[in-house]
Amino acid sequence: MTRSITIFDTTLRDGTQGEGISLSADDKLKIAVKLDELGVHYIEGGNPGSNGKDIEFFRRVKELGLRAKIVAFGSTRRKNASVEDDDNLRLIAESGAQAATLVGKAWDFHVHTALQTTLQENLAMIADSISYLKRRGLEVMFDAEHFFDGFKNNADYAKTVLRTATEAGADWLVLCDTNGGTMPHEIRDTVEALLAEMPDVRLGIHTHNDCELAVANALSAISAGALQVQGTINGYGERCGNANLCSVIPNLQLKFGWSCLPENKLSQLVPVARYVSEIANVHMPTGQPYVGSAAFAHKGGIHVSAILRDSRTYEHIAPELVGNKQRVLVSELAGQSNLISKAKELGIELDPKSPQASETIGRIKELEHRGYQFEGADASLELLLREASGEVRELFVFESFKMLVEKSAGKPVVSEAFVKLRIGGESLYTAGEGNGPVNALDNALRKALLQYYPQLMDMHLSDYKVRVLDDKEATASKVRVLIESRNAEETWSTVGVSGNVIEASWEALVDSMRYALLGQEPAAAAMIAEPRPGLLNH
């Protein structure tokens, strides 16, 4: 029989303790819906006794009809106080959550130093708090904080903490590596020892990533007999983060063969991971295992040549299993197989034996030697490939641009750009102002093009990055500019390189508009764009 592992997501609680992550009540509700669609079993929404956002979340989440159990988080009662007078516990009971996570001390050092109370009072705090919530009908998970440190320091007391929680009615005992300093073999040995003494308890594992071992430690605990794993999407969390469920889940399901998510839900992992990163407004690492955009990206020519024969040569799983996809990168390391594969991916017919293929490879390598980078500029690369295949029609001819930048005392900088183009034999001369020279160029170029290509009204620039390529040259250094653009349907990136940041920006800007207009025909629409403040204030 396939072993079933319970997935407990704490992105909305522990994940928000990560630096730079702040989620509104609306954000939390949106993410909760996605987590429920993914099929996790528990969603920890926050602490209803800590802030208004969490109170609002618990009030509104009941209207969503989620299948996952919603969990409220809190601590055991205050020392030397009545559990009936504890407002935090009362708010958990009144939150409407089906389950509660109670955190309590399992390390005698913490009891004496952090709580500044006796070991016996700590046990009473645990028992009273769990009993209180059980009497009110909640499922209770006891998070044994600092359990592994406590077990190493005073194993008898750490085990007494677990027995006390069990006798009080705890449904789950969750062992926490709170400081993230325990090694995988220690996790395994501890879990095995506990289950040998307490075979009837249900153990969970909650690990932190301070030694880059949160995922490994979670897997060690599950392998040793734990049945619940707690973690966050993309590994968000305090300090170095929590166990990353985007790695834990596919490892358990695809490598160990255990059941974590409902059938056919694993393929939603990548969309959920990216959705959460967007809502949290945190860049998602491209090299993140399983769900990163580079997780199944291939750059070396030998690798690409092999995966074209059989993807198993350089892929440990089929990327589609987790909702990802195979990507072939084109760079100075690329061989002909990279280029042909990339062209095929884009629907471009490029004969591998043709002179155009060899010339294009040579041109790409020469451009990358000069500082261009096409791995992060998919649209510029596609334009190169379509030019090689003869598909790209010349939309406009650039003649010149001029810039004026004026700064007066006590006044903001004013930038003005003048652009001269030829479209269909007609010479156009336009001017645009902006809050920076690149923004002014963008507005001037739009004024000219919108008369012929009104569809550019739907396009906007969403990101702008500048990188110095050789810092030894100081202010004379060559720079690479990457521009991300988007419309209602898609997002694309373009690149420009120059010793002048404005020229590099112009190259990327022009490519972004050329890409947006692929396959478009000019229309004689007399439209003039209003200047856009945008983000190109450079």
Q: Would you mind describing this structure in some detail?
A:
This protein has 538 residues and is of the alpha/beta class. It folds into three domains: 10-262, Alpha-Beta Barrel (TIM Barrel); 297-388, no CATH class; 397-516, Alpha-isopropylmalate synthase LeuA, regulatory domain (Double Stranded RNA Binding Domain, 2-Layer Sandwich). The chain has 17 helices and 16 strands. The chain has an eight-stranded parallel barrel, surrounded by nine helices. The chain has a three-stranded antiparallel beta sheet with strand order 11-12-13. The chain has a three-stranded antiparallel beta sheet with strand order 14-15-16. The protein is elongated, with a radius of gyration of 29 Å. The chain starts with 5 loop residues before the first strand and ends in a 22-residue tail after the last helix.
What does this entry show, briefly?
By secondary structure, the chain is α/β, with parallel strands linked by helices. It has helices at residues 25-38, 52-61, 87-94, 108-115, 119-135, 147-153, 155-168, 184-197, 214-224, 245-255, 269-280, 301-309, 336-345, 355-369, 378-388, 437-450, 501-516; strands at residues 6-9, 42-46, 69-75, 99-105, 139-145, 172-177, 203-207, 228-231, 297-298, 327-328, 397-406, 414-423, 426-434, 460-468, 479-486, 491-498.
Fold blueprint:
Layout: E1 6-9, H1 25-38, E2 42-46, H2 52-61, E3 69-75, H3 87-94, E4 99-105, H4 108-115, H5 119-135, E5 139-145, H6 147-153, H7 155-168, E6 172-177, H8 184-197, E7 203-207, H9 214-224, E8 228-231, H10 245-255, H11 269-280, E9 297-298, H12 301-309, E10 327-328, H13 336-345, H14 355-369, H15 378-388, E11 397-406, E12 414-423, E13 426-434, H16 437-450, E14 460-468, E15 479-486, E16 491-498, H17 501-516
Parallel strand pairs: 1-2, 1-8, 2-3, 3-4, 4-5, 5-6, 6-7, 7-8, 9-10
Antiparallel strand pairs: 11-12, 12-13, 14-15, 15-16
Helix pairs in contact: 1-2, 1-11, 5-7, 6-7, 8-9, 9-10, 12-13, 15-17, 16-17
